[in-house]
Specification:
The chain is α/β, with parallel strands linked by helices. The protein has six helices and ten strands; from the N terminus they run βββαββαβαααβαβββ. The structure holds adenosine-5'-triphosphate (ATP) and magnesium ion. The site of adenosine-5'-triphosphate has 11 residues, from helix 1.
Length: 232
């Protein structure tokens, strides 16, 4: 396995804000994300964190720059290849869980496993293992509405792990939770890293998340500025 799971070079991205005006949000960002660590990127609202995450995961395209994930240049992939690659290699956790309301917790986690080609039975087996890891073995048959906010987000974490991804991207993963439930999710990330070998890239406007990171960066004025933010 590649020690640098993501290598990004010279990422630029502008958005048109009016007919004849555009704003450069990412001004040539270069970044390396290490395997088996939790990397946290903090920055003010509007700094470009979600934009950067979308670009690093191939959900959006940069105007300039190059991104290697596991040594593979994602700009060279077709949309179909990229979406297959994403389903297999990248897990996503967002502020809102986006679980499918009509399916149970175990079905929500099983769906991406089936999309990757597994049978329903195999997918459910793996789904139940994952729900056990996130501490929800006894809630697997609940639908999202029958779970607390913190539990819903733990199902979303299990779903992100579904296909054993090389990296998990989390965008404000605890932004919708109270501090106690937020802490549970943070401890879960640390446990998943330490005991299960997962790699995380977490972005947040909340400086509280600095303590979660093995590596911490700040994004400001379209660039990464590295002060002494790291807590370890
Ligand atoms: N599709 C788009 N079209 C135009 N402008 C956009 C688009 N997406 C993002 N922007 C602008 O780019 C800037 C960065 O947005 P982004 O969502 O990346 O910020 P963020 O750091 O994630 O903020 P937050 O902490 O509020 O989530 C914002 O000013 C936003 O309005
Ligand atoms: Mg954002």
């Amino acid at each position: 396995m590649n020690e640098k799971i993501i290598v990004a070079e010279g990422i630029r991205k502008s958005f048109r804000i009016s007919k004849d005006k555009s704003l450069e949000i990412l001004k040539g960002i270069s970044l390396e994300i290490e395997s088996l660590k939790i990397t946290v990127i903090v920055g003010a609202s509007g700094a470009g964190k979600s934009t950067l995450l979308h670009i690093l995961s191939g959900l959006d395209k940069p105007d300039n720059g190059k991104i290697l994930i596991d040594g593979k240049d994602i700009s060279k992939m077709s949309d179909a290849q990229l979406s297959k690659f994403r389903n297999k290699r990248i897990g996503f956790i967002f502020q809102f869980h986006h679980l499918l309301p009509e399916f149970t917790a175990e079905e929500n986690v099983a769906i991406p496993i089936m999309l990757d080609g597994a049978s329903y039975g195999k997918a459910l087996e793996r789904s139940r293992e994952l729900l056990k890891i996130v501490g929800l073995a006894d809630r697997s048959a609940h639908k999202p509405a029958e779970l607390s906010g913190g539990e819903q987000q733990r199902v979303a974490v299990a779903r992100a792990l579904a296909n054993n991804p090389s990296i998990i991207f989390a965008d404000e993963p605890t932004g919708n939770l109270d501090s106690a439930n937020g802490e549970i999710i943070h401890s879960l990330f640390t446990e998943l890293k330490n005991n299960h070998g997962y790699t995380f890239l977490v972005v947040s406007h909340n400086p509280e998340l600095i303590k979660l990171g093995d590596v911490v960066h700040e994004i400001k004025d379209g660039t990464i500025i590295d002060g002494n933010l790291s807590s370890r």
